[in-house]
UniProtKB/TrEMBL annotation:
PANTHER family: PEPTIDE METHIONINE SULFOXIDE REDUCTASE 2
Cofactor note: Binds 1 zinc ion per subunit.
Reaction(s) this enzyme catalyzes, per UniProt: L-methionyl-[protein] + [thioredoxin]-disulfide + H2O = L-methionyl-(R)-S-oxide-[protein] + [thioredoxin]-dithiol
Protein name: Peptide-methionine (R)-S-oxide reductase
PROSITE patterns on file: MSRB
Source organism superkingdom: Eukaryota
Amino acid sequence: MITRAVLLRIRTTRQFSYSLSKGMSKTEQEWRAILTPEQFRILRESGTERPFTGKYTDTPASEKGVYECVGCGSPLYKANTKFQSSCGWPAFFEAIPGALRTIEDRSFGMVRTEMRCAKCDGHLGHIFKGEGYNTPTDERHCVNSVCLKFNPE
């Protein structure tokens, strides 16, 4: 198992190629060419955008459409799974099946569940469970807005 510390060391290696089982393989230079600096910082370096600043933070849930990964275009969330959580980032209660992979995140003295795009391995945010939101799953997928692109249907 690759630990978070090893991943962080790998990410600092300039020539490292991000290869995944589903065929996404890009070098750091290629990612920098297609992402904005903020998108790169969050998706590729596991950063976090400032709360209440993202494009999709306060947008209402929509009946139709899909939120996609800005890095690879993979569908992540149906629009009707978005809800208002007032946490400062877009919140969803359920991902599209197979869209995410999760890993334990022990950074900052906490234990959290980090979520990453299953296709390109981009960091998206964290999943919080049991907070009491009135949703079908009682989960809050707290997603960095800069990682998302909305595709209306």
